[in-house]
Every structure is written in structure tokens, then in C-alpha cells.
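Action item from last meeting closed. Structure (173 res):
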């Protein structure tokens, strides 16, 4: 009963594939990538149907149920890791730094990033606000530059759903 059987491995692998495809499809839909989401969904449903057939034929053994759960958890993890690697979409990185810090925007611009900066008033006085729109895969590079040049900066970033062409057109990113 508790010896290794090939069916256990098959259940785990099928569930990893299914849940990974499911996770990626959902992320692609959220990111507006309808064509890729549709392609992934076809693979997802095929793997699901194959897996469902195997699992329903072998549900009496509790080890198979554990294998199913293990595959599900690993699929969620793998889907998340793949999404991190793909880093789809855009983010805005905003930093509030020391007043009149003009070197940081210059440094970011010299690295090819579009930067908007302005002076703002806050509770403790004047500060410089820097805003950078970047592809998500470049977010950590921008944050590292900010932290290196302005270690006390208050930094936030948030994902964008869409934006219009204008100054920050998609062709310039």
C-alpha cells in the first residue's frame, strides 16, 4: 500500500502541470494577454481531463490523495515562480528623497529610464519626489539605484493595468 507506485508520480506530475497552467492562465488574463491565456487554457484543460480520468480511477488509495494534494501545492509554487520570472507588465516606482536631490533623477535618466521629478511639501518640510515607469522586470534595478544613491528614501511601487501613449508611450519602454 505505501510502496512507491508509478501512479503516485503520474498524479503528482499531472497536478503540477495542471495547477501551473491554471496559475499562468489566470495571471495572463489579469495582465490582458487574452491570446496567450487562451492557448494556455487549452493545454490546461487537456492536462486536467487526463489527470481527472487517472485520479478518479485511483481515488481509493489515500496515498494517491496525498499525491494529488502535493502536486497541487507544487503547481501553485511553480506557477508563481514562472510568473516572477516572466515579470509581465509595468510598474511605477515612486521615491520620496531628500530635498533638491537632482543627482538621482539624472542617474536614472542616464541609464535610460524615463523619470519625472518634482518638489513636494510634506510634514517635515520639502522633499523631492521621483516617479519612474518601467517594465516590471526592471523594478528591482531601479530600486537598487534609488537605495544606493538615497539610502533614506521612501520607496513605493505599484503595478499598472494600462496607460495611454503620450510622453510615456509603449514604444519608448
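Sequence:
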Amino acid at each position: 500500500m505505501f510502496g512507491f507506485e508509478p501512479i503516485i508520480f503520474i498524479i503528482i506530475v499531472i497536478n503540477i502541470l495542471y495547477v501551473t497552467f491554471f496559475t499562468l492562465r489566470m495571471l495572463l488574463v489579469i495582465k490582458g494577454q487574452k491570446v496567450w491565456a487562451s492557448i494556455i487554457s487549452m493545454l490546461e484543460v487537456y492536462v486536467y481531463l487526463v489527470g481527472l480520468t487517472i485520479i478518479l480511477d485511483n481515488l481509493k488509495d489515500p496515498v494517491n490523495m496525498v499525491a494529488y494534494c502535493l502536486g497541487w501545492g507544487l503547481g501553485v509554487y511553480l506557477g508563481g515562480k514562472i510568473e516572477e520570472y516572466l515579470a509581465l507588465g509595468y510598474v511605477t516606482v515612486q521615491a520620496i528623497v531628500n530635498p533638491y536631490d537632482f543627482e538621482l533623477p539624472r542617474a536614472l535618466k542616464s541609464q535610460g529610464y524615463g523619470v519625472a521629478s518634482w518638489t513636494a511639501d510634506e510634514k517635515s518640510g520639502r522633499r523631492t519626489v521621483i516617479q519612474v515607469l518601467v517594465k516590471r522586470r526592471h523594478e528591482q534595478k531601479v530600486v537598487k539605484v534609488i537605495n544606493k544613491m538615497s539610502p533614506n528614501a521612501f520607496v513605493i511601487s505599484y503595478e499598472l493595468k494600462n496607460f495611454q501613449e503620450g510622453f510615456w508611450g509603449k514604444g519608448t519602454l
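Note appended to the action item: Strands lie at 90-97, 115-122, 125-135, 154-160.
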